[in-house]
Design goal:
The protein is mainly alpha-helical. The protein is 82% helix and 0% strand.
């Protein structure tokens, strides 16, 4: 780009061309700065948003880890009790063989009654533990699927938000009547949605007033503030 605007004549023309060159440089510099700032803001906003999503999902992951740990312990308990049941089965088998060798009609000593009761209790307990482990496995899988779905939905929302924001920023790069109309419409619709969300209990305050939102999506929050201030200043 020639900053002299293509000078080839008088001093007046040189001055005019210099002005043109400066304007060209200013516009190109502003455009380059805008693109660089938008790219950096998008990257920072995405990273901050992803970090915020991970923070929100951490309690759910804690529950999954707790379920998994407890399920492992219960499986170990089931395994130990099954070993005890196997031993008792073996003892009962030996008792039955010994009783079969006795003379017909001889009353049983009753030594197997306690073992039989014990094995019944252990079998019932193991059945309950197995059912609980299966239920916990199902809960772990459901929680994992829920966390994955929430992360995907959050990332999908970020894609839409950043795309919409970039389109708006391009339309708002000047002070044309169209740009003013877009700012007014955005401010009105934004405030309307905030009021509805606060009324329904979905939000406690407007996003741009929330410090957590500010830390998670600083670029988006600044965009909202700039839009609201531009309308309020008129």
């Amino acid at each position: 780009m020639r900053l002299d605007g293509g000078y080839n004549g008088s001093a007046q023309q040189a001055e005019a061309n210099l002005y043109v060159g400066r304007e060209q440089g200013r516009r190109e510099g502003r455009k380059a700065g805008f693109e660089e700032g938008r790219s950096q803001g998008y990257s920072e906003g995405w990273d901050a948003g992803a970090a915020r999503a991970n923070t929100k999902l951490e309690p759910l992951r804690d529950h999954v880890r707790q379920y998994f740990t407890e399920a492992v312990l219960l499986r170990s308990q089931v395994k130990r009790q099954q070993a005890v049941i196997d031993v008792i089965h073996e003892q009962l088998s030996k008792i039955a063989q010994a009783q079969a060798a006795q003379r017909p009609g001889m009353p049983a000593a009753g030594r197997d009654t306690g073992l039989a009761d014990t094995i019944t209790t252990l079998q019932n307990s193991n059945a309950w533990l197995r059912a609980k482990v299966e239920a916990m496995d199902a809960q772990i899988q459901a929680s994992h699927a829920q966390a994955k779905l929430q992360t995907q939905q959050y990332n999908q929302s970020l894609v839409f938000v950043h795309a919409a924001q970039e389109v708006l920023e391009e339309f708002l790069d000047d002070d044309s009547p169209e740009a003013e109309f877009i700012r007014e419409q955005f401010a009105a619709r934004y405030q309307q949605q905030v009021a509805l969300s606060v009324r329904d209990g979905d939000l406690e305050m407007a996003p741009h007033q929330d410090e957590t939102f500010h830390k998670s999506l600083p670029g988006t929050r600044q965009f909202i503030v700039d839009m609201l201030q531009a309308v309020a200043s008129r």
